[in-house]
Amino acid sequence: MILTLTPNPSLDRALEVDRLEVGGVNRAEAAWVHPGGKGINVSRVLVAHGVPTLAVLPVGGADGARLTELLGEQGVPALPVPVAEDTRTNLTLVERGGTTTKVNAPGPALTEDEVEALLAAVEQQLALQPAALVSAGSLPLGAPECFFVRVAGLAARHAVPFALDTSGLPLTRAVRSGGLALVKPNDEELAELVGRELVTVGDVVEAAREVVAAGTRAVLVSLGAHGALLVSAQRSWWAGGPCLVPQSTVGAGDSTLAGFLAGDGDAGERLRRAVAFGRAAVLLPGTEVPLPDQIQLDDVRVVEDPDPRTALKEL
Ligand SMILES: Nc1ncnc2c1ncn2[C@@H]1O[C@H](COP(=O)(O)OP(=O)(O)OP(=O)(O)O)[C@@H](O)[C@H]1O
Ligand SMILES: O=P(O)(O)OC[C@@]1(O)O[C@H](CO)[C@@H](O)[C@@H]1O
Q1: Which ligand is nearest to the CA of 249?
Q2: Is 254 a catalytic residue?
């Protein structure tokens, strides 16, 4: 079973407009609502691929109740931890041409007791020895920047591998503290983490090795249209496929992480699956999750120890 923790879940509302007029009144032609938040998306993808999972999340107010209901409708096992303030709503505006504008709310302010209750719920599940713990997304107000350091400590105490997908200061704190099995930044998040621009494959590998040196076993760096790089202490792999026309890239990183965790295989095969899941996700609208028959493993090429001089945009 793969346990996921989404500290700042959301109701993801999407509105489709012909062309977004900034500053004007726009009338939507279609509207959707999905259960959202990065860890929740990982669980949704795992469920779609028959991998047992449990999503731990704080929920508050009517929107929190709606989120729990949507997870139930989609057959995603969830452990909601009640909080006083309302679960946030994140808004996606999709234009007919495919341009997507996203506005994410900060989320509820959790009290110290609520943060402790969330961590206690995670620890209770870690004691049952899941195969892995994934935590992903931003932190709600009130959660300390060292939140993921504490999660990593709990995972270590129960010897459960911990994979993290977050950004900014919470990522920096967790990486510096170490003890992570996997970190999944995109290239911009990794650049921010190491404080320099990443132009070539060699730049990414070097930056990822700094993360590894600080105590992370492997770094999965997603590169958008250019595929992904997996970097460990000794080796690196790149995987990517032919150009495609995306419908929505929202949640592609979550599908990538789910694909990496969804089965066994050597590092190259797991990376191939990760990239195939990400590619399948971008062909779907909104944060719809890819199904098994939409995964095209054969389209993805894997290269072991790719040439460090290659520019990322040439991959
Ligand atoms: N334009 C694209 N064309 C082909 N594949 C894409 C494209 N964008 C994303 N992907 C696939 O999805 C994966 C994840 O994308 P990306 O690097 O944008 O993740 P991310 O920034 O974490 O996304 P998000 O935070 O929105 O979930 C890529 O590694 C790739 O396989
Ligand atoms: O604000 P965060 O936590 O960084 O990201 C939240 C979010 O944008 O991530 C998912 C897509 O990856 C969406 O379901 C959700 O709205």
Answers
A1: 1
A2: yes
